[in-house]
Design goal:
Radius of gyration: 46 Å
Number of strands: 3
Low-confidence stretches: 29-57, 100-131, 146-150
Helix content: 55-70%
Mean pLDDT: 78
Strand order of the largest sheet: 1-3-2
């Protein structure tokens, strides 16, 4: 029953093979039955000859600049030195050649090809590159062809000094000009070298003294400020000030009839001149300077006068400690030459008798009264803390003399104790007050009437 002729078997195999082939083609080429595009619809990309050689790949077109604006394509490189603009809204970039500047800007420091000398061998007008460092005069010569000027602080100061003397003759009409000149001078005179040249050129006689003697409070104050700035830590200016006899002039304007700015700056100038300078301190004493300082403490209480009292107290504290330091240095110095110099300093300080003069002018009593006033103002502000420090250190430095004057003053002792308690409480909150607490503890023990 299952016998089949060879013809029929061949026919079945052929049909099965055809069906299998059809299924395979339909799976692998699922779009075989779609309509192919006509030749005119097909896009063929032409490959440049350069790409066939493998030397470049999508090389951007070279940008050739002209005098007209041209759009810069994306990723297109442009040569340097072009004028470029960007549209911030669209992001479009354009470039063109730079236009030559028809005007010759002689103040420019940049050198272009057009500004080079016609004869390149003629380098007289150019800086010598072989010189790594050039002198001040050489720099001025190099820059003069550029219509530029270079000035040192000394030259600026000399010009300001000349301008001041010219403007002083027209003072009523040029007050503002004088103020500007003096402000600029004060800035320059903080420098040691400039200040020394200033006094060498008679700046004290030609500028400072006329300022202090003027009818203007601003001029008085600014003249004293100039002198204080110049003399601060500058021995040559201190000596020049002493020789110019400005100390009596400054003392005159600490008087109560003048403005606070004048008084304050005069004290500043005096302190700059006489610190660590016994000869200047001697001139101060001979011109009743100590009595002038004491008069500040007799004036009615005002905010300005409180500040003046602090400045006087700090200055006198420094002068007293100077004497103690000179003696300490002499006692500890082992070098023979330095010991001789220290001995001379001690001798000059001893000749002043500054402590004795202070006691004679009731300085101990004045300081004691200040402590009583301060104890009644607890809690204290910053200026009062400074006053406690200056007055306390002065009393300790002069304790041998002041204890005699203040002996048995129970009100003073109570003020010491009250301030000691106050600073002990402040110390618990802030370590900053430790030094003031230690100072008051030492004063309380030193001036305790029971221990005397």
């Amino acid at each position: 029953m299952f016998q089949m002729s060879s013809g029929r078997l061949f026919l079945v195999i052929l049909v099965a093979a055809s069906l299998g082939a059809f299924l395979y083609l339909d799976t692998m080429f699922y779009h075989w039955d779609r309509v192919l595009p006509q030749p005119e619809e097909m896009v063929v990309e032409t490959v440049p000859e350069s790409s066939k050689n493998g030397t470049t790949f999508n090389k951007p077109k070279e940008f050739v600049p002209t005098n007209e604006w041209q759009i810069i394509d994306e990723d297109q490189m442009i040569p340097s030195g072009l004028h470029v603009q960007i549209d911030l809204q669209t992001g479009e970039k354009k470039a063109k050649l730079m236009e030559e500047n028809k005007k010759n800007n002689r103040n420019s420091l940049a050198m272009t090809e057009s500004s080079k000398p016609e004869n390149i061998n003629d380098t007289k007008s150019l800086p010598d590159k072989s010189e790594k460092f050039r002198s001040y005069e050489k720099l001025k010569d190099d820059l003069k062809d550029l219509n530029m000027t270079i000035k040192s602080d000394m030259e600026v100061m000399d010009e300001l000094s000349k301008q001041f003397q010219e403007q002083l003759k027209l003072y009523e009409d040029s007050d503002k000009n004088l103020q500007n000149i003096l402000t600029d001078l004060e800035y320059l005179l903080h420098q040691v070298d400039t200040a020394e040249v200033f006094v060498k050129n008679k700046g004290i006689q030609l500028i400072i003294i006329p300022c202090i003697n003027s009818n203007s409070s601003f001029m008085k104050a600014q003249g004293a400020l100039l002198l204080g700035s110049a003399a601060s830590n500058n021995q040559k200016v201190q000596i020049a000030s002493l020789e110019s006899h400005v100390i009596p002039l400054l003392l005159k304007y600490i008087d109560d009839e003048y403005l606070f700015s004048v008084q304050k700056n005069c004290i500043y100038a005096l302190s700059s001149i006489i610190r660590r300078f016994p000869l200047a301190q001697k001139q101060l004493i001979e011109n009743n300077g100590i009595q002038t300082f004491m008069s500040v403490f007799k004036r009615p209480k005002t905010e300005s006068n409180t500040k003046l009292k602090l400045k006087v107290s700090q200055l006198l504290e420094d002068l007293i400690i100077e004497i103690e330091d000179a003696k300490l240095t002499f006692n500890e110095e082992t070098n023979k030459k330095l010991s001789s110099e220290a001995a001379e300093r001690v001798r000059q300080y001893d000749d002043l008798h500054l402590k004795d003069i202070l006691v004679e002018n009731r300085w101990c009593n004045i300081l004691g009264n200040e402590f009583i006033i301060l104890s009644n103002q607890i809690p204290l502000d910053e200026d009062n803390h400074d006053m406690v420090e200056a007055s306390g250190k002065s009393l300790l430095a002069m304790q041998k003399l002041c204890k005699v004057k203040l002996q048995g003053n129970k009100e003073l002792y109570q003020s010491f104790y009250a301030l000691e308690t106050h600073y002990k409480q402040l110390l618990q909150k802030d370590i900053f007050f430790d030094e003031l607490y230690q100072l008051m503890t030492e004063l309380t023990n030193t001036y305790d009437p029971v221990l005397e």
